[in-house]
């Protein structure tokens, strides 16, 4: 929940001035109120505007909520679901997120699906079980064909906004586990083709080392994305 309209427009202007040296796909996720203006400002640009969240219903008595159809009507084709803050502060469960995933896919949207363990899970050695459970409950009912619309984003919750970062080795270990879990439940082709992003205090100083791991396909960037120069330093580290 950052940046009013003027701040968002200024950030987009700054982003458009940056030179992209990598072939990484770049997406930005402004707040709902700034989505259409952002879409218009970036029309014809290579940066895609995506949403931070959506509701599973197409319409109805859900005051304050936004549907997939509403997002698509303002040019948004991709949505982030299951972010750790949605899970923690708004009690979003794996079952609810499964409904949201289905609604997005029914509307031919792409999903950036977030998941990850908290600090007590990591300390107790339960982190693999937590991650496997979150993925299975929300995604493993999907047919193989649906995975072309899924991007995964691993967020170690203990490393979000804390300044703590999973070591490159920890990130690679979990990403490899995620890919193997998908392979075991689907097949190698699905596992190898799905992009798995890392999200957790990625900064220009550590991005290259994190992204150099074979199973880390990109990043879900938080605070560093609010500064255009820092954000593109991370993009260009890939």
Task: Describe it.
By secondary structure, the protein is an alpha/beta fold. The chain is 43% helix and 10% strand. The chain contains eleven helices and seven strands. The protein has helices at residues 5-17, 35-41, 68-73, 84-89, 94-106, 119-123, 127-139, 168-185, 188-193, 204-211, 228-235, and strands spanning 27-28, 48-49, 78-81, 110-115, 150-154, 196-198, 218-219. The strands form two sheets. Strands 3-4-5-6-7 form a five-stranded parallel sheet, covered by helices on one side. Strand 1, helix 2 (35-41) and strand 2 (48-49) form a beta-alpha-beta unit. Helix 1 (5-17) packs across helix 11 (228-235), helix 5 packs across helix 7 and helix 10 (204-211) packs parallel to helix 11. The longest helix is centred in the last third of the chain and has 18 residues, at 168-185. The protein starts with a helix and ends with a helix.
Rg (CA only): 17 Å
Q: What composes the largest sheet?
A: 5 strands, parallel
- Oligomer designation: single chain
Name the shape in a single word: globular
State the secondary-structure class.
alpha/beta
List the keywords.
two-stranded parallel sheet; five-stranded parallel beta sheet; about 240 residues; alpha/beta; about 10% strand; about 45% helix; 11 helices; globular
């Amino acid at each position: 929940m950052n940046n009013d309209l003027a701040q968002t427009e200024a950030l987009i202007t700054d982003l458009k001035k940056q030179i992209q040296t990598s072939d990484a796909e770049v997406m930005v996720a402004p707040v709902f109120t700034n989505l259409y203006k952002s879409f218009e400002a970036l029309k014809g640009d290579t940066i895609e505007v995506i949403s931070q969240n959506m509701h599973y219903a197409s319409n109805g008595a859900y005051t304050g909520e936004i549907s997939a159809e509403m997002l698509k009507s303002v040019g948004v084709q991709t949505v982030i679901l299951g972010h750790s803050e949605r899970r923690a502060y708004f009690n979003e469960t794996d079952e609810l997120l499964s409904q949201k995933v289905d609604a997005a896919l029914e509307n031919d949207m792409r999903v950036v699906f977030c998941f990850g363990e908290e600090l007590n899970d990591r300390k107790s050695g339960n982190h693999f079980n937590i991650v496997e459970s979150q993925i299975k409950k929300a995604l493993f009912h999907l047919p193989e064909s649906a995975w072309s619309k899924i991007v995964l984003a691993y967020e170690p919750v203990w490393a979000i906004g804390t300044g703590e970062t999973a070591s490159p080795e920890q990130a690679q270990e979990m990403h490899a586990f995620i890919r193997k879990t998908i392979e075991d439940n689907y097949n190698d082709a699905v596992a190898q083709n799905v992009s798995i992003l890392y999200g957790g205090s990625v900064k220009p100083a550590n991005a290259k080392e994190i992204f150099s791991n074979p199973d880390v396909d990109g990043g879900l960037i938080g605070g560093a994305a609010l500064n255009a120069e820092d954000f593109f330093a991370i993009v260009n580290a890939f």
